[in-house]
Specification:
The chain is of the alpha+beta class and 660 residues long. It is built from 20 helices and 23 strands. The structure holds adenosine-5'-diphosphate. This is histidine kinase.
Length: 660
């Protein structure tokens, strides 16, 4: 009875400890198992076992190792090992430990051993090791990105690291190409080169990466080869079976996509996807940081350049003034040359005052302190005043001026002082950048609902690559050219800013160096004078319009154009406030800048569409780029219309006439 109880306790201990015992009789090749051993190996208790049946249960990858250890054990080496077994196709881990048994005469009988089921411990260990390696990987990537001043270039190397860790065979990194509004392949691996060339450019919404860029949401694709989703065609054709693509986002702004693909298995698990997400976040942060650094460096460089020019420009007039003072001192204020000298000094002082005034104006506009004193004006009067102010300067430079004055009045709502300043700036540039003996022309006319004013000259012209930049602050084509009159590279920046505040725009045209330049200004005509103003289309005036845009000038200009069409306009300076405004204001039309800081335009549009108040609104994307592709791409992103900044009156009419 007692021994039976002992036996029962022993069996229970084995079961609780998941440790079975075994005895291998090598002389007869008979393997005896305890009940627990049968359980561990998943076999019916009592089924006869041999060394071969045991080996057959061992995981195929571990069989050679286990056999080797057993042979060594029979030679007297310790038998203590961990290996895998297969139970109903499932992998289990066991620890085996044994000692040899001999008969009384010392001949080898075989071995006695124990088998312990260590699956749980082993899985925890493997998971821990994986976590440690994952953390090492992410730390390595973060360090590399932090040290790198070329994040785009570093992507290839760090993705190779990720691929090795995750056992992936492909990756793709697309970046947003702002100028074209498309995605550009920055780096990839795992596909043939000619295939990579084919997919170098991608439109939003096309293939998985394009869809992720459009929706800003991760896409995970499993068993790609069997997928009916047409977006997976591209990756399937590269032999990829499991795929995961993340958007690269920082501060709500899309910068590109990063995706990984495996060709040897059908799906990624959650832990792997989490690693890809973490890598995407690290890359996004690094890109955003670098972008900010570059913008700061560029601003700093331009400021340095500007300070040097400023010093130069302020110093230039001082030399003749000093000479003048000397002359006056020597010859006396009443001397024969005195009047000429005084006039010269006056001109130089005027020049300094003009420079300083320009400077003050820029800082006033920048800090938003400028206020337009609007009144109804005839553009022809503004032309006259500007010509009067510039005539002397044109004459002094030997540049003749033709004036094409329209017959009809061109009435606009604006600040006369600022608008005269705009026209005079363009005229004085024509004088500055046209050699003596050259010619300039100023003309104005009505075009639809706008007044168009052109200032043309046959002077030094502008190289094509500089055309888009002449309106940037401190931009100058050639700092050594036209220096006789001096300038700080802020005149045209002021022109553009002031025109935008009036809802107008300016454009520079030139066939290149030596071919002269044309500056074309467009201003909205006051509504009653515009051909077919709001009265024509009764429906337009009733519209509630919300503008979500962080650039003051654009907001100002757009609101003016919209109000000229009788719209009721509200503005919000970021995406979050924009979404809130939709709920309170119920706009029929919403303009959204795609490049908003914080929540970007795409996200704002998505949230607005999800609101009951925004479901039927006409949502218009405001972008810096134009063209068919851009239009297509914002359309795919759920916008009804697309407008390239700055908007023209024609654009506004198109929007207000649009019906969903
Ligand atoms: P600046 O003080 O240098 O004249 P602006 O902002 O008025 O600055 O003009 C910026 C640059 O644009 C000038 O430095 C010049 O290179 C170019 N530019 C402006 N107007 C003309 C013109 N009429 N013809 C040729 N180049 C021009």
């Amino acid at each position: 009875m007692e021994s039976w109880r002992q036996w029962e306790n022993f069996a229970r201990a084995q079961e609780l400890g998941q440790i079975g015992w075994w005895r291998m009789d090598t002389t007869r090749n008979i393997l005896t198992w305890s009940a627990e051993n049968y359980r561990i190996f998943g076999q019916p208790v009592g089924a006869p076992q041999t060394y071969e049946t045991f080996l057959a249960a061992v995981h195929p990858d571990d069989r050679a190792y286990v056999h080797e250890k057993w042979i060594a054990a029979l030679r007297g080496e310790p038998y203590d090992l961990e290996h895998r077994v297969l139970v109903d196709g499932q992998e289990k881990w066991v620890r085996e430990k044994a000692c040899l048994e001999f008969d009384a005469a010392g001949a080898l009988l075989g071995g006695f051993g124990v088998t312990q089921d260590i699956t749980d411990r082993k899985h925890a260990e493997i998971a821990l090791q994986w976590t440690v390696r994952r953390n090492e990987l992410l730390t390595r990537i973060a360090a590399r990105l932090l040290q790198s001043s070329d994040v785009q270039g570093a992507v290839e190397e760090l993705c190779a690291d990720v691929m090795q860790f995750l056992d992936c065979q492909a990756f793709f990194n697309y970046l947003v190409a702002e100028e074209s509004g498309r995605l550009h392949l920055n780096a990839c691996a795992g596909i043939p080169e000619d295939r990579a060339r084919e997919i170098e450019w991608l439109d939003y919404g096309v293939a998985i990466c394009g869809a992720v860029a459009r929706d800003r949401e991760r896409i995970v694709a499993e068993n790609v080869c069997a997928s009916a989703d047409p977006r997976t065609g591209l990756i399937a054709s590269c032999g990829i079976k499991a795929y995961c693509c993340h958007p690269l986002m920082a501060q709500g702004r899309l910068m590109g996509t990063l995706s990984f693909g495996a060709k040897t298995r059908l799906a990624f698990n959650d832990d792997e996807i989490e690693v890809m997400q973490a890598v995407s976040q690290l890359v996004s942060m690094a890109m955003a940081r670098l972008r900010m650094e570059q913008a700061l460096l560029e601003a700093d460089r331009r400021k340095d350049e500007f300070l040097a020019t400023l010093a130069h420009e302020l110093r230039n007039p001082l030399a003749p003034i000093r000479t003048g003072l000397l002359v006056l001192k020597r010859t006396g204020a009443q001397g024969p040359n005195a009047v000429r000298v005084q006039e010269m000094m006056e001109r130089q002082v005027d020049h300094i005052v003009r420079l300083v005034d320009d400077l003050l104006e820029v800082s006033r506009i920048r800090s938003g302190k400028i206020e337009l004193k609007r009144e109804r004006l005839d553009l022809r009067d503004l032309m006259d005043q500007a010509i009067e102010a510039s005539q002397q300067f044109l004459d002094a430079n030997g540049v003749s001026l033709t004036v094409v004055r329209p017959e009809e009045p061109l009435m606009i709502d604006g600040d006369p002082v600022r608008l005269v300043q705009v026209i005079a700036n363009l005229l004085s540039n024509a004088a500055k950048y046209t050699p003596s003996g050259g010619h300039a022309e100023i003309a104005a006319r009505r075009v639809g609902s706008q007044a168009e004013l052109t200032v043309a000259d046959n002077g030094v012209g502008i190289p094509p690559d500089m055309l888009p930049h002449v309106f940037d602050l401190f931009a100058q084509v050639d700092r050594t050219l036209g220096r006789a009159q001096g300038g700080l590279g802020i005149g045209l920046a002021l022109v553009r800013k002031l025109l935008r505040l009036h809802g107008g725009q300016v454009e520079a045209r030139s066939d290149g160096p030596g071919k002269g330049s044309v500056f074309l200004v467009r201003l909205p005509l006051a509504s009653a004078f515009a051909q077919g103003g709001p009265q024509r289309e009764g429906g337009r005036s009733a519209r509630r319009v919300l503008i979500i845009e962080d650039d003051d000038d654009v907001v100002h200009g757009l609101s003016m154009l919209l109000r000229a069409q009788g719209a009721n306009v509200q503005t919000a300076y970021d995406g979050k406030r924009g979404v809130e405004a939709v709920q309170s204001f119920h706009p029929q039309v919403v303009f959204i800048d795609l490049g908003l800081e914080g929540m970007d335009g795409y996200e704002a549009a998505r949230r607005i569409r999800a609101l009951p108040e925004g479901r039927d609104a006409i949502i218009v994307a405001l972008t810096r780029w134009g063209g068919e592709t851009a239009r297509e791409h914002v359309k795919k992103a759920g916008f009804d219309l697309h407008i390239a900044k700055p908007a023209s009156m024609g654009d506004i009419e198109r929007v207000l006439d649009f019906r969903r």
